[in-house]
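Help! Submission page says 'invalid entity' but I think these are all valid:
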Amino acid sequence: MLTPSGHAPLRRRARLRALAASIVIPLVACAAGAHAAAADLDAIRTQVVAQHDVSVKRLQEWIALPSIAAEDLNVQQGAEHMAKLAREAGFQKVEIVQTDGKPGVFATLDAGAPTTVGLYFMYDVKQYDASEWVAPPLEARIVDRPGVGKVMIGRGATNQKGPQSALLAALHAIRDAKQAMPVNLVLVAEGEEEIGSPNIGQLALRPDVQAALKNTVGVFMPMALQDADGEVVVNLGAKGIVELELVADGTAWGRGPAKDVHSSLKAMVDSPAWRLVKALDTLVSDDGNTITVDGYPAAPPISAEHRAMVAAAMAKRNEARARQQLGVPRWIDDLPWQQANERLVSQPTINIEGLVGGYTGPGGKTVLPHRAVAKIDMRLVPPMTRDGAVAALKAHLAKRGYGDIAVNVSGGYNPTSTDASSRLVQAQLAVLKRNGLEPLLWPRLAGSYPGFVFTEPPLGLPSAHFGLGHGGGAHAPDEYFVIESSKPAVRGYDGAVMSYVEYLYELGSGSGR
Amino acid sequence: MLTPSGHAPLRRRARLRALAASIVIPLVACAAGAHAAAADLDAIRTQVVAQHDVSVKRLQEWIALPSIAAEDLNVQQGAEHMAKLAREAGFQKVEIVQTDGKPGVFATLDAGAPTTVGLYFMYDVKQYDASEWVAPPLEARIVDRPGVGKVMIGRGATNQKGPQSALLAALHAIRDAKQAMPVNLVLVAEGEEEIGSPNIGQLALRPDVQAALKNTVGVFMPMALQDADGEVVVNLGAKGIVELELVADGTAWGRGPAKDVHSSLKAMVDSPAWRLVKALDTLVSDDGNTITVDGYPAAPPISAEHRAMVAAAMAKRNEARARQQLGVPRWIDDLPWQQANERLVSQPTINIEGLVGGYTGPGGKTVLPHRAVAKIDMRLVPPMTRDGAVAALKAHLAKRGYGDIAVNVSGGYNPTSTDASSRLVQAQLAVLKRNGLEPLLWPRLAGSYPGFVFTEPPLGLPSAHFGLGHGGGAHAPDEYFVIESSKPAVRGYDGAVMSYVEYLYELGSGSGR
């Protein structure tokens, strides 16, 4: 599917022409605010193209330094690199903030603008197994992908270094084009997003950080929102998540062995592995799809408004391609495409991420394991809460006689919702419309991010994702981000950068929240 | 528990005294057969002691070369080393026999004796994780173990290189003492015991090997039968076993993803991991202990004769120590010690050796795995058969709607029984009694070995285990074999060697099968 690029890079002039052709931004759209009025978007666009190679190299260097919280890998280095990137992009105050977990970064850019915008970044990435990749996951190699264009393959390419680096490149370009920065910025960047952000509150709610965020119109996270055809959905929130391990252990149980013993002893010794299977069995229906945890918080049925949003989006989405990309022959319960997506946005899940018990190597080993673990993630929809879901799970296990099974929560957070009328969302819609992209609203991102820290008290801010461009393979092998798109409707890297330029000017030209 | 030895080795003379004191073998006992009559056991004993250091070194060198069939490790080297050991011990014909799996070794020692005895060896060992050991598993370090003596720590120390090397040392000592070998020997050694001996028939039933075995009075495997107090049980058979993997896979199922996908998709995509849990759940009762596979072959209740054997053995076994060694606070169903052991010898099991699915590393990873595996071993008792058990499992899964779950059998064999009146068993009882050890009969070893190839047609031979000495930790970390015992009742290495000398002379002095 992916082949190393055999093409010479497009020359700069050709790229500029390509970019000019694919982005239509009437200058009048930038005339509302004082700062925006002063902007010469052509000059910025010229800078974006001029800086293309430097920006791509900056992204490649970032990908080469993976910070992985679950493996305690490059934690301090990742925070320092994030701080350096912020400083270079023009943030005047940049501080590494220690937490009980991995350090975060707090940075502010004061442009003297009337509007302040919050940014949420993550500098960590998901684990990877290099043997599963077509190109080394840290090399950030740019390859030709037929029908897509030139894509960068690398861990973090789209989740989230590609889009975040594009936003930073937008700040470089605005400054170097000597244009007024349209908004002030408050950045919080964490290094634990991929383990469920257990300490995000210690970063975002530290009194001075909280005070800075309180001044913003809301907080957004850079994200490549375009699908492979260029379609964009604007998410009005995200599911919450809990990540945890269920651990069956002979010592905790008071039955079975305290260490692995010879499997012949199964005839007289209890098995923690079977106990884990039996406890897991009680959590979901026989088809694995309906949560059967006693007293688990119920999810309301999807609203008519949300159903209409899904229907409008489905009319533009290609089911066959989605099936093919995921390798999924049929959806849950053989649901049609639209109902499957209604389920995606509206239903909570209990998923087994991993099973680990006893002997896990090649072939067999005749042991009776003393311990077995299920790695679980539970996705939450409003009004569910992280604490409520965990409490219900624990109560269920206790009630069913599995109180000895440890519920070790490693991270998670509540779901979020952001009003479509918020300035954060309205500015997105305006930019999209201006570019001829019909804005599709999407009720809720099925994935999760710690927006709760911004949307819930004490901050109570709108929180959203924005960015053009396209990527894929988040959490999977061959994660990619489009650098030069072969489809006019899909933006490449420079187009992604320009989408942040446009969005920041649009935010700077508005008023209210 | 285990500390490196700080003691200087006992001097040879002291060891000889210790050995003479612990083994009482009236010479008259060896007067029955022509070969046996000629034996000077004192001369042999002197050789055993003189060769102690060489014999121990031979064992250490063997442990340093682990052959692990499941990992395809040192397969050819292991067979060649086994052949070399046989040649050096006096086998005149030694051949490496290729099979569809790992090679075996076939060797014969013609002593011109009227009686021929079969030997079954395994040159492979179980996998190990060195990080779990107190001493490197291949170093075969000799350490002091309080209350036990000097023990050798190493993978294969007791299962099965220690006892097998002791038998080879017996052959060296008999020859070097210039005594007549009391029996002819036919050796079959395989390298796949730990994966369930999938090709043992290709070795033991090859026409010339089969013809050689047909001449034997039976086949025995060297084994350290003494427990930590020196008690010995004589096994009258062994359970059978099937090792297999149950694999739930999205592609085979026709549901779920063909590769790992982002876990948020659980809301619309089926989960092979949950499917595995649900299928496993149908195999055993809620406590994990009773097999609930539809139509699974039933095990008859324990016979009165076997119950009496267990009762007699339990009177001499220390329950508290067994619990402590295994780290098991209570037995299945809170059974008393004797009933737990009745269950051990009489009941089949389905055990989970390992669970492997999705992400198995540290922390979590939000994936929906496309595949999950349970590693299973099933122990069998007569009249169950390997093929019958597998067929019942497959039929059960199909009937319950889990026909897509693959049942990948990697090895296994039928249970065995050997009559207490056989010469192989009667000779054991005679040696034990002569040494003041009250022989305890045990209905069936709960572990498994491929004795079926000897006991079933076309060979139909008695098959058994024999050997004095003590070891522990088979298949577990810190596997050990006693080299110098601190308890008079428990034999050290030289005592184990002498037990084989005695057994071979006893077998040579008898008649019939």
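Support: the input was valid. A stray whitespace character was the problem, and the output above is from the cleaned input. Residues 1-18, 20-37 of chain A have pLDDT under 50 and may be disordered.
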